[in-house]
Amino acid sequence: MSSKRIILMYISEVSGHHSATMAIEKAIKQISARHEILNINAFNYTNPVSEKVINHLYMGVIKRAPQLWEYLYDNPAVVKRVEKIKKVVHKFNSPKLKLLFDKFKPDVVVCTQAFPCGMVSDYKKTFHSRLPLVAVLTDYIPHSYWVHNEVDYYITPSRGVSLMLVQKGVSPEKIKPLGIPFDPKFNEALDKNALFQKFSLTPSKPVILIMGGGQGLGPMKTVIRSLEKVKEDIQEIIITGTNKKLYNFFKKSLKKYKKKILLFGFVDNIHELMCISDVIITKPGGVTVAEALAKGIPMIIIKPIPGQEASNTAYLVQEGAGVKIDDPQQTNLIIEQLLDNPINLNKIRKSALRISNPNASSDIAKLLLTLDG
Description:
The chain is an alpha/beta fold. It is about 50% helix and about 15% strand. It has two domains: about 5-180 and about 360-370, Glycogen Phosphorylase B (Rossmann fold), CATH 3.40.50; about 185-355, Glycogen Phosphorylase B (Rossmann fold, 3-Layer(aba) Sandwich), CATH 3.40.50.
């Protein structure tokens, strides 16, 4: 197989989209180190100032007005209205992409977020390019911003998402249900006893992993207060991501909690922490979901953000791999129900493994290495 030049595009440094491109890059390099890969924040490359503004606005909407995001997300009326704006932005970006592509000369471009996918689609149309373009969906819903005639392949997380794409007009021949890419290290066999010793935890006591995504979002304070009421002697691992304010809050509060708690900020060993966890309470970002499914960990989702998170949650609940809670103050009751019923807990674990795609990253890497411009 000849050496390939591959561009991987995402937006936002701390995001599932970026985690997905890094997972694909790692999987490609595991096959062969001779392939040349450019892993690029497309939004920052084309619109560095706009990126900061839009990220700030997005986070503000998600935190303060999630109902507004619910209205905007994949709303046909909104999609139609922004079409003209989108075309203007893409036309502005096309010359920048041309400079990048002319210099790097990629054999294939892969996008894990819809914005760069639209940019590259417009570039292909403008310059009559036959450059292979692969869209990798990292959520269990294919919103309309993904759909472009110039996309050569769509990588989907499930057959259900594939069907939804077909309903949106995408040819079935273009769709590959290979799963959501995640770091191959989540598939490594780990020594659980050694990990319990490493983190000074007791193997005989349940471990609850609490996460708020890379940016430490969600009602984590309320969840921890609720877990204090759990009758069983549980152990907790809290991960606050890049949310320094939340980290400092928990750090100051640790002494007042009765349960044993390990506190972390942004970490790169989630695979180890998942390995020793009995249940995970988390935001249902697509990559996090894929990682947890591969580990067979029952998921508890609390107040998912409307849009992609709500869709991811609905999929998990439908498949029996997760539990949704509307009131974070009731977290303790759900945890007690799960721990008191090991048969049901094991059933959820089996459901998670059943719908997992542990080889997604390597399967995607193999597909990309067969493509030529």
